[in-house]
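#onboarding

Welcome to the new folks! Below is a worked example of what a typical request in this channel looks like: someone posts a single protein sequence, and someone else replies with the predicted structure as tokens. Don't worry about understanding the tokens yet, we'll cover that in week two.

Example request:
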Amino acid sequence: MIKKNTWNRDTWRLFWAIPLPERVHEEIAALQEELARVMPRDTVRWTPPQNVHLTLVFLGNWKRNQVPQLTAGVEEALQGIPPFTLELDAAGVFPNWRRPRIIWLGVGGQVDALLRVQEAVARAMVLAGWEPEKRAYSPHLTIGRVRKGLDDQALAHIGDAVRRLKVDPFGAHQVREIILFRSDLRPSGAVYTPVARVELVEE
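Example response:
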């Protein structure tokens, strides 16, 4: 089912992702607050919990009239793939503990099913003309970005805080659909709007 909207711009910044239930957003918010309490103040720009999602494929800029083609390709690629369960089970940073730039949550549960979905979506997008990323897919959810210009001591403090954080598996939920999002970059932050949905159907 394709969601229509009323924007006039012809070019959209698009990505396919798995959405999270509201209760998982709430659990992520609590985890962000826990981390913020033990980090130097104003050193991390936290992702609004409602914006946290599991990206499958970032497409970049496409014409809005290509959305039906992209959606049809993914619908065909996901035929025969049933819903599956994921949970969040770790916290980490990119690129390393001493100089963190991205704070993320790891994904557990039926990861093999997740990778099957991601590979199917990626293949469909290649057939539509998408140029795939050279790096391998690494499933994670970005929950914070470290601000630029911090000294080594502050960076190390942030890395240590994340490394010490104990994350028991949480947020188990069944994935029943993937969404094509439009991303609008605004001064207040990114705004994500669903433009199409593809359901996973029981075999």
